[in-house]
Design brief:
By secondary structure, the protein is of the alpha/beta class. The protein is built from six helices and eleven strands. Helix 4 links the parallel strand 6 and strand 7.
Length: about 220
């Protein structure tokens, strides 16, 4: 792994999901890379490298996915903003056919490595900007964790769901009870979707964090 990503110090962790354990290789002390990997586009919009963190929302949603047992078996699943690949691995282990996507190339290298070390091999890995969807086929399920933290992401994510979800498809999105999340779900409802919300608690570094999980369908 050091030969693959020589510029990143790494650590190995274990995430427990139901009766399974997922082994993840992640970036150690990601804060040191936050400024280095931040960038602005031509419109001076700042993009932060959120993929370098393993977010609690991903852990909460991975545990939720594991509890779905075989309901994802054989389904076509798209993970957007996959980061280290935790959600896609959890879904793959329930029998889903998962496509891992992220805009960041280095994130996909981690996702591929983590998929392989958890028996998901070969993993389908695609570099994709959710502002420019690159798939012609549709998916039964779309998974995402902590992708609605910035309002600039709301419109392209909703358009992605409109374009890529099958008629009876489901999106499952998690977020850590952020103050602005309500705006996304108002917009989601205005664009033809309904949702159900559940909340789970996860423990990270001895701290309990509430995670909201939304199951989204077309009206």
């Amino acid at each position: 792994m050091n030969n693959l990503l020589p510029d990143y110090p790494i650590s190995n962790i274990t995430i427990s999901v139901e009766n399974r354990e997922i082994q993840l290789t992640i970036i150690e002390d990601p804060d040191q890379f936050l400024d280095k990997l931040s960038k602005e586009d031509s419109d001076d919009v700042l993009y932060l490298p959120y993929w370098i963190y393993l977010w609690g929302s991903a852990i909460g949603l991975a545990q939720h996915i594991a509890k779905l047992d075989n309901s994802l078996s054989g389904k076509k699943v798209l993970e957007i903003g996959c980061g280290f690949g935790l959600l896609g691995i959890a879904a793959s282990q329930t029998g889903a056919n998962v496509v891992f996507t992220d805009f960041e190339h280095d994130a996909l290298l981690f996702a591929r490595y983590n998929a392989q070390q958890n028996g998901v091999d070969p993993a389908t890995i695609v570099q994709m900007d959710w502002n420019a969807v690159c798939f012609q086929s549709k998916f039964d399920v779309v998974l995402a964790s902590d992708v609605i933290y910035e309002e600039q992401n709301w419109k392209p994510i909703i358009e992605l769901l409109q374009e890529l979800l099958t008629k009876n498809g489901v999106a499952i999105i998690s977020e850590p009870n952020r103050d602005n999340a309500g705006g996304f779900f108002i917009s989601l409802h205005e664009n033809g979707f309904i949702f159900e919300k559940t909340t789970c608690n996860i423990t990270v570094n001895r701290k309990t964090i509430p995670i909201n999980i939304y199951t989204i369908k077309r009206k």
